[in-house]
Amino acid sequence: MTSKNNAIVFDLDDTLYPEIDYLKSAYQFISERIAPIDKTLYSLMIEKYFKNENVFDYVEKTYNVDKSQLLNWYRTHFPHLKLYPHVECFLKNFRDDFKFAIITDGRSITQRNKIKSLGLDLYIDTIIISEEIGSEKPSLANFDKVKQLLNCESYCYIADNTKKDFVTPNMMGWLTICLNDQGNNIHKQDFSLPNEFLPDIRVSSWQEIENIFSKKIKLIRGK
């Protein structure tokens, strides 16, 4: 075991799990609350989402449920989620050598429910949620807060959103790794942005990330 002077910081949505699964979980919850007998509503909501139609407008008008109630259910329900393949293995394999943190944008209850559902609270040392500190990425405050709490010598940020995830840690001298969109991300990636917005490394799976850090561990341990 090392003294853990190195930190790996993660984004949450579409980095540790597919965010589309949260949407599906919320739609399932909402459909069961509104039409527990009618099993077609969930499928219809999903179909309308992928057609870029306004799902909540449809549900509000068809079932006479106020949109504010739909949004509340969406944001506060406890989801059923699974990590991407190899994420849990990664966390188990490297938790003795690295401190772990999450920097994520969103509402506190929404993001903490996701983290709890995924079992990430068992592994993560520090969690920074935008609503809780009053600023969103790419604000320097979110990343500085992690540095203040972890007090490590080196940092790596693993994320997916090219518009806001990498520009600040790049400026701070962190290693940045982007998990490539496999076609399901909520926020699409744009690698035509200026270089300061782009990651140091792009990967397509958590297995690739594990390979990167397996090599780093050998250097850290002096092997």
Automatic annotation (TrEMBL):
MF (Gene Ontology): metal ion binding; phosphatase activity
Keyword entries, A-Z: Hydrolase, Magnesium, Metal-binding
Signal peptide: none
Cofactor: Mg(2+)
One GO biological process term: small molecule metabolic process
Source organism, top-level taxon: Bacteria
Record's protein name: HAD family hydrolase
Species this chain originates from: Faucicola osloensis
